[in-house]
Amino acid sequence: MENAGENVFAPPRAQLDTREGPEALWDLTWKDIRKLYLASVNIRALGVLYAIGAFGVLAVGGVILATPAATAARSGIEALPMALLGAIGVVEIAGAVTSFTRPAWGRWLGVALCVLSLLSFPLGTLIGIIGLVAYAQGGKLFGPDRFMHKDVAQVYKQRKKDKK
Prior knowledge:
The protein has about 160 residues and is an all-alpha fold. The chain has one domain. It is about 70% helix and about 0% strand. It is built from 7 helices and no strands. The two termini are about 35 Å apart. About 25% of the residues are buried. The mean pLDDT is about 85.
């Protein structure tokens, strides 16, 4: 008898060790995959904040343009703040888009926006610090050979479940 000592009434045991996601993510240590996952989540959250900021800046610019006093007495000096608001809005929209699509240059745009956010004490400073840490740890999330957020999240959740 080959199964001597085993419980014949026990349910069958299946080997369900499936590893979904890129193999390169599975080669990372638990600590590294956790850092990458948290960086990816934080970068996505920054993208949402950039989009909200862009909406706010462009809405303020639209309200200023729509007021009758502003349209009646427009001069070159008043056009400069409007151009600045428009440029800030466009840069924030680009930051929001790149935090989800993650081209190589998007990381540097995100770092620049986080550095500018450091000037907005106290909340902007906190967001800027968290963003700089996320962009520093998320180098593998940007560029042509980047890891996609869904893959990082999938491997992180499987590894976390296996860890318990």
